[in-house]
Design a protein that fits this description.
This protein is α/β, with parallel strands linked by helices. It is built from 14 helices and 18 strands. Strand 13, helix 10 and strand 14 form a beta-alpha-beta unit. The longest helix is centred in the middle third of the chain and has 22 residues. The structure holds xanthosine-5'-monophosphate. The site of xanthosine-5'-monophosphate has 13 residues, from loops.
């Protein structure tokens, strides 16, 4: 298996050693947003590996442990001899202190939330920072004795050693979290560290990513053929577009229409392919094959299994026609591959059901993962830079089994029609009122029950549509979207008036957990 972890030699890296903080990913994202490539590794990355990676700076993240506890995650103090600038954040500061001769103990007052940071001495880290500024704290331990050869740069009421610096070496420790939005000037602190102290230039842009990835793809692939499944979603669309830019007609893209798509979706994908990766695009109309297999199936997991297996068979048939293929593209993203304390090891967290319909494992193809360095928002930016339209790069996630898991109970053409119409009205209204981009996912669900209603003077006994809209950062947890009543009102009115067979609309107000985003 080959991947794209090797960076072009000129690429600057800020290495983040992870000690298990819930904010570690946020640090990486913030630094990347400032234009410098940043990567997370576990705290126990060997020193030789750190030297090999040749970072311009190292960040020691926060973490839930106490440095003085027996099982605390530690690092070799030799890291301080490498002359690489180091920034310890929260636990990172305590670790520096612990390893360099200071003392850390339990704080009398645990500090969570806002604190006022007061500067005591000038330093490059404080360039452009107000003498007194709001920072965000989250710690139960604090420094009681400063390590040798350090000076205090700033303090808060409860943390007398809130920002400290080595007198000669570029080693900094800060107790607050510059990466969270509540630290008012957090980005300036990070900017000062990476540009002034680490001397980075800010070369990490969508354009430079595309350039270096295109080049490495060409080198790796040579004149072999590459297969890529597209789902119409952001990741596979961007991956296909990027691969096409790199290798043109050596790329074969396959889109399997499983008959469980939303209104116009198949046509939209075809249109995108025509415009952005027009050669060797195969549209496989497999709707009838899927629907036949799903007839009378109501159990959600059976639906998923049937759809997954059918997808693999259909995909294999299509791939065979494409001839001799060596590589398969997967749209894996960075959060799936981070080897860190917080995510407990590499790729353990990959959820198979998040891949494009689950791809065949026994096809004996080498995997190319052109997006494995990127966070989701970076994938969107790369997509934009590659010219993909906004409705593709800004798209909500859509599950592989499609409408099958939003159509509770039996899957029939008639019921699919009802669901598609209702869903389209909801999505159109979200776009019209500018709420689409403010929700993580939004969709209609067709319930397996009828309810009594009255239309004109007639009693009706018809379908119920549930509307689901959530806000989320990563789909692991989610909250129901507080959509305006007027919007819900319009949607409910339009659905009951325009979609024949629906006489009731309800809005789902459950969060995840305990519910899930999808209903099945
Ligand atoms: P849940 O419903 O588990 O969903 O809160 C979390 C995220 O995963 C998507 N999802 C799926 N994606 N195949 C997929 O490709 C599936 O079987 C599947 N089930 C849920 C869901 O839409 C949400 O984004």
């Amino acid at each position: 298996m080959s991947t794209f972890t090797e960076k072009a030699p000129e690429q600057e890296l800020i290495l983040i050693l992870d000690f298990g903080s819930q904010y570690t990913q946020l640090i990486a994202r913030r630094i990347r947003e400032l234009g410098v490539y940043s990567e997370i590794r576990s705290y126990n990355t060997p020193l030789e590996e750190i030297v090999r990676l040749n970072p311009k700076g190292v960040v020691l993240s926060g973490g839930p442990s106490s440095v003085y506890a027996g099982n605390a995650p530690l690092i070799s103090p030799d890291i301080f001899k490498l002359s690489i600038p180091i920034l310890g954040i929260c636990y990172g500061l305590q670790l520096i202190t612990h390893l360099l001769g200071g003392k850390v103990g339990k704080a009398d007052h645990r500090e969570y939330g806002y604190a006022e940071l007061n500067r005591l001495a000038d330093d490059a880290l404080f360039s452009g920072i107000d003498p007194s500024t709001a920072v965000w704290m989250s710690h139960g331990d604090k420094l009681t004795v400063m390590p040798d050869d350090f000076t205090i740069l700033a303090r808060t009421k409860n943390s007398p050693y809130c920002v400290i610096k080595h007198q000669e070496l570029p080693i900094y420790g800060i107790q607050f979290h510059p990466e969270v939005a509540h630290t008012k000037q957090g980005n300036i602190f990070l900017k000062n560290f990476i540009f002034d102290i680490c001397a980075c230039h800010g070369l990490w842009t969508s354009r430079s990513f595309i350039e270096h990835t295109v080049q490495s793809i060409r080198e790796q692939v040579g004149d072999e053929k590459v297969l890529c499944a597209v789902s119409g979603g952001v990741d596979s669309s961007v991956a296909a577009r990027l691969m096409y830019k790199a290798i043109g007609k050596q790329l074969i893209t396959i889109f399997v229409d499983n008959g469980l798509l939303r209104e116009n979706e198949g046509e939209e994908v075809r249109e995108m392919a025509r415009a952005h990766f027009p050669e060797n695009f195969q549209y496989v109309d497999a709707g009838p094959r899927f629907l036949e297999k799903l007839r009378e199936v109501t159990d959600p997991e059976r639906k998923r299994k049937i759809i997954g297996e059918t997808f693999i068979r259909v995909f294999e048939d299509a791939a065979k026609k494409a001839g001799d293929i060596k590589y398969l593209v997967q749209g894996t993203l960075y959060p799936d591959v981070i080897e860190s304390v917080s995510t407990k090891g590499p790729s353990a967290v990959i959820k198979t059901h998040h891949n494009v319909g689950g791809l065949p494992e026994d096809m004996d193809l080498e995997i190319i993962e052109p997006l494995r360095e990127l966070f989701k928002d970076e994938v969107r930016n790369v997509g934009k830079e590659l010219g993909l339209p906004d409705h593709v790069v800004g798209r909500h996630p859509f599950p592989g089994p499609g409408l099958a898991v939003r159509l509770l109970g039996n899957i029939t053409e008639d019921r699919l029609r009802v669901l598609r119409k209702a869903d389209k009205i909801f999505i159109d209204e979200l776009h019209r009122t500018d709420h689409y981009n403010r929700t993580w996912q939004a969709f209609a669900v067709l319930l397996p029950i009828n309810s009594v209603g009255v239309m004109g003077d007639e009693r009706t006994y018809e379908n119920v549509i549930a509307l689901r809209a959530v806000t989320s950062r990563d789909a692991m947890t989610a909250d129901w979207a507080k959509l305006p009543h007027s919007l819900l009102d319009t949607v409910a009115n339009r659905i009951t008036n325009e979609v024949k067979g629906v006489n009731r609309v309800v809005y789902d107000i459950s969060s995840k957990p305990p519910s899930t985003i999808e209903w099945e």
